[in-house]
Amino acid sequence: MIEQKEHHFIKEYFNLVKYLINQHPDNIDLAMAKAVGSPTLESFYEIGEKQFAVLKFIGLKDGMSIYDLGCGSGRTAMALKRHNWTGNYTGQDIVPELIIYASSKVSDPNFKFYINPNFQFEKKMK
């Protein structure tokens, strides 16, 4: 059995997201951009474009699947949609507000977002 530990950075991340939402009640887009380290909306979209370019460079094609652990507020998913990429995308993060936001911005049945509250993978033994 895997022991569940409390990590201080998880609480800090939850608190940061709540703080940013409270700081920007009239601009949730900016709060969500800042939650993943982008100081402006422009930089949020610019980094998403760079992430998309890297994925294309390493061979991403339509019809493939992407698993985005720590997807945050969906910056990569939004870039994929802006470029009309078709495939299966799964994003997971530990902060519910980020997942709710990401799923509200990317409306596509092939893009799924999940809350991963345990912040861990469980290794299945045979």
Task: Give a summary of the structure in a few sentences.
With 126 residues, this protein is an alpha/beta fold.
Which homologous superfamily in CATH is the superfamily? Vaccinia Virus protein VP39
| Oligomeric description of these chains | single chain
How can the largest sheet be summarized?
Answer: 3 strands, parallel
- Please report which band the strand proportion falls in: under 5%, 5-15%, 15-25%, 25-35%, 35-45% or over 45%: 5-15%
What structural class do the secondary elements suggest?
alpha/beta
Number of helical stretches of at least 4 residues: 5
Structural account:
The protein is of the alpha/beta class. It has one domain: Vaccinia Virus protein VP39 (Rossmann fold, 3-Layer(aba) Sandwich), CATH 3.40.50. Helices cover 47% and strands 13% of the residues. The protein has five helices and three strands. Strands 1-2-3 form a three-stranded parallel sheet, covered by helices on one side. Helix 5 links the parallel strand 2 and strand 3. The protein is globular. The two termini are 14 Å apart. The mean pLDDT is 91.
